[in-house]
């Protein structure tokens, strides 16, 4: 399946009104050859998960600059789990206090990128840790 | 495959989403599913929305979805954005304007990248339309950026094609003329809250009149509407025009579903055959490096393009045999 393309979603849950960071990362992902679905500001976890399903992405990158990241990020992971989805990687980025990182990883956020992280390191991490879904439609041709 | 088909027919979102991915990624097995779905297609009404970058296509699609939902219709949206020729990646941002519908079960929105395969966009978009159609969506809206031939071809899969422009595009309107004027069923001057919209409407009407021969008695004459999509002004009127166009088509085809008219089938099949040939012959020549090798040979004066072409193509033409053997 040489044509398989990595599809990722960049989403901004919560109330803060800045998406410069999210846009920068979206561009970096595009330049790395990924298809990036960007959903804009003020998304609820429900909206993010529903969009991720419709878009069949391999990864959701959550960006948060406000304080509610623990609740919001956890909700995204929970919703995916409730729907029986275990093959979408969830990552987070933004202004996130050091002490929260272990907590977030425990609830199922695979990696957290804080403002100091270089773009190329994030891209590299995604390339190494997120693979496009390999299995195609299950279909038996008689 | 049986269950795959059943899941699509029952409207299973996850299955549909994955199937569209497989279509896009050209997973060969997907054809078997599409074959099985075909009998269930032809019911949806397909609307194309195209126009230059930033003219308000996604904003309009979002409003159309809202109106159609109020009438109780279900809607599928395919929003196509260009693939970067440098990286092969893409930013698919149309969804931003439509996210208010993401929790609505009656709406399925999918962003697609053009991916730059030769004419493949039309093919994969058409297949995605078939899937959403079989899924039971009443309307399918396809948004493309009206720049390349490929995008223009995509909107030709639609029953009604809407071309969006904005005031003061001047020269751009001239540019539209090139390929797109012919495919437009309804023209919309969006951002009519800006200065110059009446002038743009006038210019468009003039241009349409100049190609008057096309519009003999009884033929559909594309209307030109003013719109302020962000403020939901003019959207209702547009949907009324779409309905009129739909009636016109129904009358013309004598009740046969548009997709199943002789003309459509011919067009779709011819696209499909051409695409398959490109896929099976041309793309393979590129991948194997034979094509580049031939280019080098011509440059080096070892052969001429006519001979090179024959040498490339003829060995590939016993495909049928090859496939027969595989079975
Ligand atoms: N003033 C004004 N702005 C509008 C109107 N309709 C849309 N816009 C704005 O135009 C900008 C682009 O709108 P989109 O709907 O994203 O345009 P698009 O054609 O889908 O853009 P691409 O998909 O990037 O080509 C947004 O900021 C909209 O809010 C309108 O009627 N009037
Ligand atoms: Mg758009």
Notes on the protein architecture:
The complex is a heterodimer of chains A (142) and B (327). Chain A is 39% helix and 17% strand. Chain A has 142 residues and is α/β, with parallel strands linked by helices. Chain A has a single domain (7-129), classed as Rossmann fold, CATH 3.40.50.280. The two termini of chain A are 21 Å apart. Chain B is α/β, with parallel strands linked by helices and 327 residues long. Chain B has 2 domains: 2-256, P-loop containing nucleotide triphosphate hydrolases (Rossmann fold); 271-326, no CATH class. The longest helix of chain B has 27 residues, at 262-288. The A-B interface holds A 1, 3-5, 7, 26-27, 29-40, 43, 46-47, 50-51, 53-56, 85, 132-133, 136-141 and B 1, 3-4, 13-14, 17-22, 24-27, 29-30, 32-33, 83-84, 86-93, 95-97, 99, 102-103, 108-111, 113, 115. Strand 2 of chain A pairs parallel with strand 3 of chain B, so a sheet runs across the interface.
Unreliable spans of chain A: 137-142
Q: How many whole angstroms does the radius of gyration of chain A measure?
A: 15 Å
Q: What is the SS-derived class of chain A?
A: alpha/beta
CATH architecture descriptor name of the largest domain in chain B: 3-Layer(aba) Sandwich
* Unreliable runs of chain B: none
Cα-atom radius of gyration of chain B: 21 Å
Can you lay out the helices and strands and say which pair or pack?
The complex is a heterodimer of chains A (about 140) and B (about 325).
Chain A: E1 7-11, H1 20-31, E2 35-38, H2 45-55, E3 59-64, H3 69-82, E4 89-94, H4 100-106, E5 111-113, H5 119-129
Parallel strand pairs in A: 1-2, 1-3, 3-4, 4-5
Helix pairs in contact in A: 2-3
Chain B: H1 2-9, H2 13-24, H3 30-37, E1 45-51, H4 57-70, E2 75-81, E3 90-92, E4 107-113, H5 120-135, E5 139-145, H6 149-155, E6 160-165, H7 171-179, E7 186-189, H8 197-210, E8 224-226, H9 235-252, H10 262-288, H11 290-299, H12 305-313, H13 319-326
Parallel strand pairs in B: 1-5, 1-6, 2-4, 2-5, 6-7, 7-8
